[in-house]
What does this fold into?
Amino acid sequence: MKIVILDAHTENPGDLSWEGFEALGEVTIYDRTPKFDDAEIIRRIGDAQIVITNKTPLRANVLDACPSVRYVGLLSTGADVCDCAHAAALGIPVSNIPAYSTMAVAQHAIALLLEICSKVGVHSAAVHAGDWQRCEDFCFWEAPLMELAGQTMGIIGFGKIGRAVGRIARAMGMEVLACGSRVCPEGQETGEYVDLDTLLRRSDVISLHCPMKEETRGIINAGTIAKMKDGAIVINTGRGGLVDEAALAAALKSGKLYAAGVDVVSVEPILPDNPLLGCKNCFITPHVAWTPRTCRERVMDIAVGNAVSFLEGRSRNLVNDPAGAR
It folds into this structure.
């Protein structure tokens, strides 16, 4: 069995092992593969039967040009990097990695919010620069701080991550509103389900945790921002495409929104002309919420397990419905 890993570095920059895959066959590992060079992607896949990818796209023409492929394993939850429908038509099962970073992403969403409200980094930098030594008073602050207790957190997308964020918000004394496609008992224990307009109108903080679909693309836009409270905060650790970045930047610069914290943007790595880069009240991290080693170890374990299940003729974490063997 020939296995190719197209973009290994982000999952395993050297602190993990690929031995789980190496036990299954002959493994070829590429740290990175050009995303837009289909010819090179096809060349690297070659006659491999198993393809493992994180962000290297497997478009329909790539799958057509690689008739040896029998299985695609994703190193991510999101499956839009592969044309899963076309893979299904070719009889190729595609598996993803569900629920491996729930608490880490929830933690990161709250970390962005706390940086905005408590400005730990700003004040630590000021102290290291000598500002406290030169201060005439026992304390000083570079900008107003904000208490979250008594504020309202609105969560768009109330799955496992959204509910985890809600539980942390409640522990800090916040009221939690939720907007999700499905109501569940656990969610009802954590927050109050409301419609989107109500959530936008009542929330002091809005955190995005919904999946990326056509109906959620640009869900934060000029129209929805206009319905928010003046001075609201937006947090996005979901997908960059959930936000109209030009509209968000305009609202941040005008003062309509107090601040934003994002771990994802529409094009990654971020482009030099991304409008959020010009907003001092936008805190941006480079898509790192999922990267604690414990999370990446889970990714590895689940990915290997998915491949083993395929080899044993079983289905596990499928995101498509293969029509049959190619």
In short: The two ends are 16 Å apart (CA to CA). The first strand starts at residue 2 and ends at 5. Residues 249 and 278 are 8 Å apart (CA to CA). Residues 293-311 form the longest helix (19 residues).
